[in-house]
Amino acid sequence: MKFSTTNRLVKSLAALGALLGLPVAAHAEWGLNLTPGVTPFSRTIYDLHMLILWVCVVIGVVVFGLMLYSILKFRKSQGAQAAQWHESTKVEVLWTLIPFLILVGIAVPATKALIMMEDVSGADMTIKVTGYQWKWHYQYVDEGVGFFSTIDADSNNARQLGADIDPATVEHYLLNVDNHLVVPTNKKIRFLTTAGDVIHAWWVPALGWKRDAIPGYINESWATIEEPGVYRGQCAELCGKDHGFMPVVVEALPEAEYKAWLEKQKAATQQAAREPAATQKLVAAAAE
């Protein structure tokens, strides 16, 4: 499901207008609705949202339609007389039973979605996300790889008070970082979210969820990204003066490309670990 229901409806109306010879304006995505995202969970949330939206639309049309009909049909100027009754057991049972059935019908898929969101079992890999003022640290738990991710230099320079850089000229202004969180596609990834100082929140809309990063506490989440691409998010919890400058960038790669990237990261990590040891040996030799 790559397009929202609203987008499909607008395109259908545009096509109909074209067939009828009516002028049709160019259409761009409004961004007024939820997006389907790129994970099974995000699409489940989207489908649930659209289901409840249309249930509410139908209820609104029926209720306000009956109200409008009653106002027009039984108005005083038409000689209508008020009914002289005070209660109806059948009507009361009906208007109690129908909302109850609607709520139960909504609760069942909503409960399934909540259970799905919390099920982190069977993960293929684990990534620990730690929030700091004002950056993120990513640790690939099973691979021995970790690094910090902060706002990129172009955005950071443009945001400074008195800077002569036009933010409009900076690509992905305030939504780009120096080090992307790189993950493989079609793998179930378990995220462990925490913080090292104050409360943060790790949020990437395309994944369909956000998680609070709380000091001394670990929240679990999961995602299976099915489409390669770059997905952007932000810290969603007010965490200090630079809260607005903690972007999140997730880059999903096909498995082969991810493995090649991971090998480079491991080699860089091992090299960084060897350099201090070599320096210590040189210092010790000089002291002798």
Description:
This protein is an alpha+beta fold. It has two domains: 5-77 and 90-118, Helix Hairpins (Orthogonal Bundle), CATH 1.10.287; 125-275, Immunoglobulin-like (Sandwich), CATH 2.60.40. 41% of the residues lie in helices and 20% in strands. The chain is built from five helices and ten strands, in the order H-H-H-E-E-E-H-E-E-E-E-E-E-E-H. It has a five-stranded mixed beta sheet. Helix 2 packs antiparallel against helix 3. The chain is elongated. The protein starts with a helix and ends with a helix. Residues 1-6 and 22-28 have low confidence and may be disordered.
How are the elements arranged and paired?
Layout: H1 5-19, H2 40-73, H3 89-118, E1 125-132, E2 135-140, E3 145-149, H4 153-159, E4 181-184, E5 189-195, E6 200-204, E7 209-213, E8 219-223, E9 229-235, E10 247-253, H5 255-287
Parallel strand pairs: 1-5, 4-10
Antiparallel strand pairs: 1-2, 2-3, 5-8, 6-7, 6-9, 9-10
Give a brief outline of the structure.
The protein has 288 residues and is an alpha+beta fold.
Low-pLDDT residue intervals, each spanning 5 or more residues: 1-6, 22-28
Largest sheet: 5 strands, mixed
Which superfamily, in CATH terms, is the homologous superfamily of the largest domain? Cupredoxins -  blue copper proteins
Distance between the termini: 69 Å
Strand order of the largest sheet: 3-2-1-5-8
Order of helices and strands: HHHEEEHEEEEEEEH
CATH class of the largest domain: Mainly Beta
Rough outline: elongated
The average pLDDT value, as a whole number, equals 86
Number of strands: 10
CATH topology of the largest domain: Immunoglobulin-like
Helix content: 40-55%
Count of folded domains: 2
CATH architecture descriptor of the largest domain: Sandwich
Radius of gyration: 28 Å
